[in-house]
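Checked the freezer inventory, then went back to the computational side. Two predictions to log before the end of the day. The first one is the construct we discussed on Monday; recording sequence and tokens without edits.
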Amino acid sequence: MENSEPTADQNPQPPATAPKGSVDDAPTAPTVPHAPDPHAPTPPRPTPDQIRRPLPLNPRRVRGGVRLRPQDEKETPHWVTDRVRRLVERAVSAEVYAEGLEYARLGQTRRIEFENGAAEASVQGRMSRPYPVTLRLKHFSAEDRDRIIESMADQALYAAKLLAREVPANIEDLFAPLDLKLFPSEPDEIETSCNCKEPKPWCKHAVCAAILAAHKLGREPLSIFELRGQSIEHFIAMLSDRRALSNQGPGPTLVYQPQIPGVSDRAPSEIATDLDNFWEPGGQLDEIDAPLAEPEVSHVLLRRLGPSPFTESRFPLVGLMATCYELTSEHARREADGSDDLDDEHTEESNDETDDS
């Protein structure tokens, strides 16, 4: 039998090792970390917007928020409430409307007011800060307001209802011939505003505010005039004056002053912006043409107030006040003409002559 050479697998060779005392056998020096460069730029810190924190699944709860009352959903709603809510239902999907209704039930609205000619609300969502929501209608102009009052004054039913602070269900029959609407009839007639990132114009926050505004209008129907840019008290006063003129019989003439476009409807400036010159008259004072002349109608204020409320008294109160107004007006005219100074000089000369004699 022939002798075969051993293979590498049969006689494995031991791994080669470095001889003692070689360089590889020397201990390894510890690694020293590099010190930061003091001149290197500091990386910017992330802003709060860049820090993405997971939002809670449910909206943040609000203590004492404005919510739908239990009776609001049990009782038959006011026709104004029903009309506005149906309008909102037509504007959004069933899912968005359900979310907005749930927000209204949970009381996620911190506040809702009719001010500045709009419905302004603050609705709390899942973010830390509430969303400002605004619902706005097209405002009536001064000309529109005068036409409405003129038409109402000629129809006793509407005038009586409004003067009693009620809004009849057929109120739109009065506005239709004027080519106007008191309440919106289409969703796009309501302008919505919300700074959330949900699809517009109707998000669940706007739906929540609209539902609460609908119930607020049901309790205060005349507030619709506020949303149309009209002061309720001013509107009622103008309607009352116009009705008094229409039904006037014999007696003193009532004075009705219509609205002057550009003057009566001019929005007042913020006091905070005019503190430095609040007591200064301004350059427009010289442009006012107000001559001191005898009025075309005498005793305007007394005519507007009417007879004396003291019916059992024999004292002529109205006559006395009329005399006072006449004397005051005469003195103002004489002072403007300078005739008072002449009278004073004449009186002094007469007194000096009397003393000399």
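The second is the one RB wanted added to the comparison set:
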Amino acid sequence: MKFLIINCGYTPIYTLMMKYNLSVTVKNVSLQAKKIVSISFIVTMLFPAFAFGKVKQDKYNYAKARVKYKQRHSGNVDALYADGIKIKRDLFMIDQAQMDRTYKADAIPSDKLYGGIWNEEFVHCYKSLENFPDSFRVNLNGFRIPTMGYVTSNFGPRWGRMHSGVDLKLNVGDTVYAAFDGKVRVRSYERGGYGNFLVIRHPNGLETVYGHLSGFIVDVDQNVKSGQPIALGGSTGRSTGPHLHFETRFLGRAIDPTRIVDFENKVCHRDYYIVDTRSFSPNRSGGSSEILYAKYSSRSHNKYTSGRVRTHRVSNGDTLAEIAQRNGTTVKKLCALNKISKRATLRPGKNLRVR
């Protein structure tokens, strides 16, 4: 057994000796410096693996890790360069698409189309416009139904005056949602008509009106997103009960919302709607209207909205058999188109699809 002479002041060396069960003789503090040097030499000789083994292992692991995670490229450099350009191009296109879907907070939606007119008081304030387009393509992507209620009253002449929208069933306090992205143009009250109402202009060229509200959630000049809560349903103004009066307008002129929206299925009939002179003619055929749409750009079709759509407004006393005979179809087809049974109760004012 070897004995090492160390200084009491060198605690780390002392601890090392105790850890490896070495016999340690502690001498006076006045030992010569050369004895301390010899201790260092002896420790080095006794523990060469301890002194250098861990460093070598760490270096080995580090080198191994670098090799393991080293990125290797195969193929020629030109191909890698082309891939990088493609990625940059795709990112640019994504950024452009995002910019097309949004507009600045202080910008006015469809400002050029509306001749720079932005009135915060009246629903129809565009009579001074002279250049009315012969046709206009309206993008209906992103539509959200304003409320989930069914149609209780349709567009057209009613009680000696023009009913410029559709009425949708709701309860007082129900949330009303924006139909499209847009900006609030009017937030007002009309005692003999709309009651509390909002007008929102949309980037697609339409304006939507929400009437008989009990409360507002948004304010004038506020940007809103499709499906965002904007108001609470009610029965203010000229109203016989709680409902939402909903209008779709183009340059101030009312369009029958059922030409654009399938309220039965809570979706738009098509991705696009073509506004032309026929869009503003009220339905005078006594309960049916033919709806024409733009050509569909996709090969996949919605079974509820493909082709030409024809609807019939149910009147008191109507039966499925009478409606089918009047429109040259069968009761079975009517039930399939409208997802109803042959014994379903027909509610007056309800629109049934007959084609």
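For RB: The domain at 103-258 is CATH 2.70.70.10 (Glucose Permease (Domain IIA)). Residues 26-71, 284-307 have pLDDT under 50 and may be disordered. Let me know if you want it refolded.
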